């Protein structure tokens, strides 16, 4: 890939966007940022310092103080609690503003980048050359996340997982600040009936079509 190339991958929780995005990054030799980890880290920081997720100022302060270098290899960030905390703090415009420069700088790297999240194609990298909106039914996503979490010992039930996914979808799509929405120029990829291999192949074809434009 000779020209800078930005691939924006958005979609709801557990749709498989991170799996697809990291595989696209490896395939094209591009750096990858899972932007959900930023919001998860902020949410966890509020909780671990005894703060209140309902306190926008505390969340904004945590976002401004965030050390993005600590995002990899922190298993706590992938817990269900971190996901719930992330979606709470992600609704605060001050938190989103504090995390904006870091994400836009990542997207602006020479050569390009792959980012996944909720607002990559709409806010962070509106000029991205390839945009995907990855989705699947809530039941499919809940099952995938339930298998993932129970596989590592989390005792959550499928029913609780589905309720969590539905609550998060509503919050992410319904908030005023950078809501989760498919960008007008994003290609919808419904992975409900696809395994990981088929979903990656479909995503790669979408990116190839965008590169050829
Ligand atoms: N097409 C697929 N078929 C079956 N399982 C899948 C598929 N895609 C992803 N998975 C699995 O579903 C789980 C969630 O996938 P992933 O983490 O990629 O979702 P995500 O959309 O990035 O989630 P998050 O909202 O946490 O960012 C993982 O265990 C992953 O291996
Ligand atoms: N660009 C983004 C990325 C994430 N969020 C919020 O964080 C929560 C956790 O994200 P995961 O991708 O790790 O599930 C998510 O529910 C969003 O509320 C965001 O707002 N913008």
From TrEMBL:
Alphabetical keyword list: ATP-binding, Cytoplasm, Kinase, Nucleotide-binding, Transferase
Reactions it catalyzes: CMP + ATP = CDP + ADP; dCMP + ATP = dCDP + ADP
InterPro entries: Cytidylate_kin, Cytidylate_kinase_dom, P-loop_NTPase
Localization, UniProt: Cytoplasm
GO molecular function: kinase activity
UniProt: ATP binding residues: 11-19
EC number: 2.7.4.25
Main location: cytoplasm
Domain Cytidylate kinase: 7-202
Classification via Gene3D superfamilies: P-loop containing nucleotide triphosphate hydrolases
UniProt entry tagged with the keyword Kinase: yes
Enzyme class: transferase
Pfam entry (one): Cytidylate_kin
HAMAP family associated with the record: Cytidyl_kinase_type1
UniProt xrefs under NCBIfam families: cmk
Family: Belongs to the cytidylate kinase family. Type 1 subfamily.
Protein name per its UniProtKB record: Cytidylate kinase
Annotated gene: cmk
